[in-house]
# Entry
Amino acid sequence: MVHYESGGARAPHCTVAGREDGEPYTLQPQQAANAATIEAVGSARELPERAVTIAIATAMQESSLRNIDYGDRDSLGLFQQRPSMGWGSEEEIMDPVYASGKFYDHLVLVPDYLDMPLTEAAQEVQRSAFPDEYAKHEPDAAALAAALTGRSAAALNCHPGTPPAAGDPEEITSRLSREFGEAVAPLGGPAEVVVPVAPGNERQGWELAHWAVAHSAELGIARIDHAGMTWEARRSSRGWQETGGADAGDARGTSAELRLTVALAE
# Structure
């Protein structure tokens, strides 16, 4: 007997809630991870959510949020920055942390950029031949920024498609420290990373939790616990779920910490 099933497992993808039209925004894990890095660099500089929205929308237009090693003339990376125009070396520009920092360096020099239409602020930095193209990405970029800054709780979910590869707690702590700077102080264990969160600062907690979801596939993060809720790679179709327990004290991740469980080699 042969049994046929329609459909099958969906390709790896991430979804973001919070668009004004109520429809989720769907993107690939690689794109979500790059957007999370862009946000983290902005957060380390204590820039407002609007700056993050502008940066993400710009990268959407320039590279579709992919760290590509090609472009017009010598343009490279997330923001298609050009070594010949003084943006940095090829190696530097291909580093998403560096590239994001250089974009913000130029953005904050634009007078009143927070009050300008997004496409005008982006164009002041990029000097694109197509200055009006940034505007079409604003709804998706705004939803991503709201989730990645932590303003929208439990708004980002990623489906890795397959169980995550084995992770390394030291790599996770190193990445967190490099992208967020002194704002976080992760503590790595043999199979877990704990990130203290200031009591009552749920926005920072969800900022870090969403960063971890976005990077879960590449960093081997199997489970995330925060504020009485849990995300698991093997059950990602369920999204964020209440951890359970009689009260918040029973949850593995309290409001004052974020716990990342690392996938171990089988």
Q: What stands out?
A: The CA atoms of residues 54 and 118 lie 6 Å apart. Residues 29-44 form the longest helix (16 residues).
